[in-house]
């Protein structure tokens, strides 16, 4: 039995179908009207931001007196783009996120497969993991500083904790959702536990694993920025916090937008790579 020849419903796919699905991507199935609508939504957000910031609106509970306008933020972004600091900040943050995310992906998928397939592993591993899961990234920072000899390792660990649990829980859910008839069919054809895991469980759980990885990537950025604000010397989070302490309000907005773009882009990249790796799931699903 070939795992790549089975879709989510258990139907067998021929080679041409798999190749066609692998080549499909969001833009192939996104109508021009929806693209225009999304562009209009972004433009409307910029207009609202400009109106609130330029009018220095003060509503009592919230004030926009010190919020820079989009034009001021654009000038600050242009200045940062031509600054040598940008490469250092980007390189530091990307390296930390990549290290923490890859470690979380390996551990999360491994533990998720074990918990999803073994009742003993669920009883032994899930209770302590469920206790650790609600702990926010900020609460881990003091202990991480004490545990690791360098701030780089401690920040990578914070990123790891943020990405781990979305990947872990989605993997468990994906494994449990695999059709038991596929497992029985593979076993009746003589497949052992290793072959079933490789040919049935992993392909069936792959969509959930990819979803967890995309969520985990976004969470990793959130946790990394928190860690960099406290213990970093370089990084986008450190740049944003330093801009606040120096009262460079334009740079605060630039840092926030840069974090958002990096998080969105990296999550989309994870989904794209996942779609290419799992053509049997149908990469052309609506987004």
TrEMBL record:
Kindly state a single biological-process term from the GO annotations of this entry. alkanesulfonate transmembrane transport
* Record localization: Cell membrane
| TM region positions | 35-52, 94-116, 137-160, 252-270
Gene3D superfamilies annotated for this entry? MetI-like
Alphabetized UniProt keyword annotations:
Cell membrane, Membrane, Transmembrane, Transmembrane helix, Transport
Name any GO cellular component annotation: plasma membrane
State the CDD domains in the record. Answer: TM_PBP2 (cd06261)
Record carries keyword Cell membrane: yes
Q: Where in the numbering of this chain does the ABC transmembrane type-1 domain appear? A: 90-270
* Membrane topology classification: Multi-pass membrane protein
The family this protein is said to belong to:
Belongs to the binding-protein-dependent transport system permease family.
Q: What does this protein do?
A: Probably part of an ABC transporter complex. Probably responsible for the translocation of the substrate across the membrane.
* UniProt protein name: ABC transporter permease
